[in-house]
Automatic annotation (TrEMBL):
One of its GO terms (cellular component) is fungal-type cell wall. The keyword S-adenosyl-L-methionine does not apply. This is Asl1-like glycosyl hydrolase catalytic domain-containing protein. Residues 1-26 form the signal peptide. Residues 44-270 form the Asl1-like glycosyl hydrolase catalytic domain. PANTHER family: ALKALI-SENSITIVE LINKAGE PROTEIN 1. Coiled coil: none annotated. Pfam families: Glyco_hydro_cc. GO terms for biological process: fungal-type cell wall polysaccharide metabolic process. It comes from Penicillium thymicola. Keywords: Signal.
Length: 277
């Protein structure tokens, strides 16, 4: 199991002889705590923003990149696939590569961006030239329990190519979030899982002003503690590291670690000191 229990240390006591006391606090498993940055505005600043988050192991954003600690994400066109192939076969291949991000939904047009068939055709060159070092993360639909993944795997016959599944979860309370994650894992349980976006949001509810920082902090602490207890959850990416100022996104308007002026919110310190206990 990934859960790390608290330790008990036995120390000599001058009067009472030997006494057991609680020692070091539990700590999150290395690699579990990560963060998402939303762009493309100010994307060049993401490495500097990440430097304010020593509690995180890695970060991602919605464009390809190989900055330190960044996990690159492949785009959904031929040029993006070619770039990914060049990098994974190059002199410094990444350890991981995220593939298609929410191909089943375009938030501008409200249409499917990439059908399972088109995705299977588009990814074929990568399947044929994957390099020898990189582990590939499966596509992540916006609606994780839709038929998109099943149809994609049927089309490409490439389920075994991917090392890890991933999901995006936005629910207003931890119990609903855990239920959605468990439902996905009940169906797709032959690989580890990354939660590559999570926050206490919901597109059907309005954003409170000011954000309920105490409630969001509790959600964050609880979801990481629960994730720590599941050996099949390997990474959780908190969304978001930076406030989205170009538009309102109800999913992450309660959960940004840095505001639009790069000032820490009340969430940053608890994020950097998560114990997963």
């Amino acid at each position: 199991m990934r859960f790390i229990s608290r330790m008990s240390l036995v120390l000599p006591m001058a009067i009472h002889g030997m006494s057991t006391i609680e020692g070091a606090s539990a700590a999150c498993t290395d690699g579990l705590v990560n963060v998402v940055f939303n762009g493309p505005q100010n994307s060049s600043q993401f490495p500097q923003k990440f430097s304010k988050m020593p509690g995180a192991s890695n970060w991602l954003t919605f464009k390809f990149g190989t900055e330190p600690k960044q996990i690159p994400m492949m785009g959904d066109n031929k040029e993006a696939v070619k770039k990914a192939i060049d990098v994974v076969n190059g002199p410094n291949p990444p350890e991981y590569l995220l593939t298609f991000n929410e191909p089943d939904h375009d938030y501008v047009t409200q249409k499917v961006r990439l059908t399972p068939h088109d995705a299977s055709v588009l990814i074929k060159p990568l399947l044929e030239s994957p390099g020898k070092h990189t582990k590939f993360i499966a596509p992540v639909p916006a609606a994780q329990m839709s038929s998109w993944l099943d149809e994609f795997y049927d089309e490409c016959q490439c389920k075994d190519f991917f090392a890890i599944y991933n999901v995006h979860i936005y629910r207003g309370n931890v119990e609903d979030a855990k239920a959605e994650i468990n439902t996905f894992h009940d169906k797709f349980n032959d690989k580890p899982l990354w939660i590559t976006e999570i926050g206490p949001g919901n597109r059907t509810t309005a954003c409170p002003n000011p954000p309920p920082w105490d409630k969001t902090t509790k959600f964050m602490q609880d979801i990481y503690a629960w994730g720590q207890s599941k050996e099949w959850i390997h990474k959780i990416f908190w969304n978001t590291g930076n406030q989205i100022t170009s538009h309102v996104d109800n999913n992450v308007c309660n959960s940004y670690l840095l505001d639009g002026n790069n000032v820490p919110t009340p969430l940053l310190d608890p994020f950097n000191h998560l114990t997963c206990a």
